[in-house]
Amino acid sequence: MKALSQKRRHPFAFVALLLLGLLLTGGLYAAATTVNQAQASNTPDGFSSEQVEEGERLFVANCATCHGMNAEGSDAGPSLVGVGAASVEFQVGTGRMPMQMQGPQAQQKPPQFNEEQTTQLAAYVASLGAGPGIPDDEWLDVDQGDPARGGELFRINCAMCHNAAGAGGALTEGKYAPSLHGVDAVHIYTAMTTGPQNMPVFNDANIPPEDKRDIIAFLKTYEKQGSPGGFSLGFLGPVSEGLLIWTLGLALLVGSMVWLTSRSS
Amino acid sequence: MSASKQTYTEDEYLEVNEYQPKSNTGRIANYVDTRVGGTSMVREFGRKVFPDHWTFMFGEVALYSFIITVISGAFLTFWFDPSMATTRYSGSYAPLQGLEMSMAYATSLELSFDVRGGLFMRQLHHWGALMFVLAMSVHMIRVFFTGAFRKPRELNWVVGASLLILGLGAGFTGYSLPDEVLSGNGLRIIDGMLKAIPVVGTYTSFFLFGGEFPGNEVIPRLYALHIFIIPALLLILIAVHLFMVVMHKHTQYPGPGRTERNVVGYPIGPVYAAKAGGFFFIVLGVLSLLAGTFQINALWNYGPYDPSPVQAGTQPDWYIGWFDGVLRIMPGFIGNIPLEFVLPTPWGGNAIATPVLVPMIPITLLLLGVFVWPWLETWITGDKREHHLLDRPRNAPTRTAFGVAMVVWYLVMWGAASSDLMATHFALSLNDVIYWLRAAFFLGPIIAYILTKRICLALQRKDREVALHGHEAGVIEVSADGEFHEKHKLPNEYELWTLVSYEAPAPSGPRPNAKGKITALEKLRARLNRIWFEDRVVPVSREEYLEVMSHHGHGPAALEAAESRQAITAGSSTDHR
């Protein structure tokens, strides 16, 4: 200590300190960037580099026409940097992507890629930039969810577009909120985290994963329960009820009226 | 002979004259009858003759649906608690377990899931209510298009229209009772409509809700209206309605042997009584079938009422639909100009909610129009005679056309209530649906009027053609000199009657009043009268008929038969004034 204090006025002390400082910042920076690179480009969490490579190949062959060779986006489709694996899981897993045609919004159709390919595509898109990932199974386990709480959350956050019974509803200019009956838990979850089409994003700060699980639990309970009162008429409420009474109801009664007033021959 | 001379004491006389039943049943029946006087009632009503036609039975459907709704509603009152006190749900429906809600909603859920037969009775009550208003509406349409509202039945028409409005009230108050999100939204719209009324709106709303919406008062108040006041009024008016039907006698369609002075049909007893009684059970059967197989108002979906959420697919029951629909097609802005404005007043200004107020205009006009129509039509046509024979709709082209125009107008408003479902189910843009409905709101009635009037006139011309020249038989004959012509089959006497027995007077010009002056109002009347009658199709006259018959070269026997046809004389009075 004494030696150090004596040498602090040495003419080279300033140079040595500067060197030390530069080395430290440079070293830290280098370390930090390599860590970042390892996360961003090589292998995103939960995926292998092989999957990323395969995914890139599939992407170039099937998606690049609209989304660009490096997923940077074009006039025909948005950039996919930072949309995350969850977006791919939802869009490709429900058959919405690749899109059949341009329109107000992507239509659901039978998935064009199998599970393995979808995961590869998800790995590639996730490697482009940080974004919402595919949820852990824990958050999709409806047995751990509370359907009553989920129902309340659903009515407050979702029912204005998706209908109280999840039957779907209209939005402006040909867009619509689709029916939620028969949708996989993972797709309900990823739809909430990514906000596909016209849906807003419900991130984890807005609706925590536990609450998302409750909502899924509610929808699944609802699906299982069916309609206690008979045929559901599409869960559309008074309009389909009115239609039924004016068609079947009226027809049955007019039929019996004609029968009652006809003369027996 | 000796027996007839026998004298009786007063007691013996009474005993002999009294009917002595032989069986026990007879004795009981006689005991009751001598004290209630049922015989005379049966004699009076049982002999009442009613004409037979299926379109005359919609009123009956309405009556029976009402009775079914009352009975099923009484069942519901045993469990339903119209209270807005909060409770925590602990019934058997899992997805609502533990949620805070009003007693009204909790007991509605209890009725649906924990009361034996409760869900069925709830659904029967609701389907019955839908059918009640439906049957009244169709009944009213039938009465309108056949002209059954004419003298002497104008007041009964007004009673019927009041019944329809009461039916809407009964339905809406019932729809609002379960206190779930759907019905709460419905009430919110009514609240908005009330508050849109300038100056007094807010006071009216606070008066109804007992303070700011939604408050804790409205469900018990609606309940009192729903189970007591409105049904009582309905019952009274139904009694008046039926009493007037019996007093006026029933109308009938024109046909051979049917005149303004008779009623052709069967007496109530015994066949009609049996038919009508049986028909009650058919209506009950149809409604039970619906209640047992089709879910209606799944109130467990909507959740306890909370003023913040509004759900997609929120609609009223069908009969309130047109209120909702007309609000949906009313724009709030035209370009960038808001339609809502603030009226400056000494106390600071009154907001005028034009987008809510203006849509109430067509509704008010239509309802008001229903009430005044019988007098309006009499005023225009100048026809002040009694009518017990109905019009075939084609034989009153202007009325029919106007009626169809109004029905189309109603349908546009009604359909607009499901604009969102039309968009999703037919893959359309919601905006386009609204634009088309706006166009249809103005153009629909006009197009419907023109089309219907033309169709009616074309049908009348065809009737003339058939009466004079017969139906095309589809058989082509070649004469000896090579001429082709189609055989025509003349209508029989029964058919001829319906084809020719109607009236189509020429338009009557303006007539001066007692002071010899033609008022502006009278000029208006004359103009409307001209529009009413100007393109009339004149029914076949006797001369015309005979001329055509002789021209056709029918034998003297056929001509003689033609001359004896009463229908032509009956219906040939083209100008009755």
TrEMBL record, chain A:
Matches recorded under PROSITE patterns: CYTC
Keyword Transcription regulation set for record: no
Record localization: Cell membrane
UniProt entry tagged with the keyword Translocase: yes
Keyword line: Cell membrane, Electron transport, Heme, Iron, Membrane, Metal-binding, Repeat, Respiratory chain, Signal, Translocase, Transmembrane, Transmembrane helix, Transport
Complexes and interactors: The cytochrome bc1 complex is composed of a cytochrome b (QcrB), the Rieske iron-sulfur protein (QcrA) and a diheme cytochrome c (QcrC) subunit.
PANTHER family given in the database record: CBB3-TYPE CYTOCHROME C OXIDASE SUBUNIT FIXP (PTHR33751), CYTOCHROME BC1 COMPLEX CYTOCHROME C SUBUNIT (PTHR33751:SF13)
The protein's name in its UniProt record: Cytochrome bc1 complex cytochrome c subunit
Annotated organism of origin: Nesterenkonia sphaerica
Automatic annotation (TrEMBL), chain B:
Location(s) in or outside the cell: Cell membrane
PROSITE patterns: CYTB_NTER
Lineage of producing organism: Bacteria, Bacillati, Actinomycetota, Actinomycetes, Micrococcales
Keyword DNA damage: no
First-level EC class: translocase
Bilayer-crossing regions: 61-80, 126-145, 157-177, 189-210, 222-246, 279-300, 352-376, 396-413, 433-452
Protein name: Cytochrome bc1 complex cytochrome b subunit
Names of the cofactor(s): heme
Transmembrane recorded as keyword: yes
GO terms under cellular component: plasma membrane
Signal peptide: none
PANTHER family: CYTOCHROME B (PTHR19271)
All residue ranges annotated as the Cytochrome b/b6 N-terminal region profile domain in the record: 28-254
EC number(s) stated in the UniProt entry for this protein: 7.1.1.8
Keyword field: Cell membrane, Electron transport, Heme, Iron, Membrane, Metal-binding, Respiratory chain, Translocase, Transmembrane, Transmembrane helix, Transport
MF term (GO), any: quinol-cytochrome-c reductase activity
GO BP annotations listed: respiratory electron transport chain
Catalytic reaction annotation: a quinol + 2 Fe(III)-[cytochrome c](out) = a quinone + 2 Fe(II)-[cytochrome c](out) + 2 H(+)(out)
Species: Nesterenkonia sphaerica
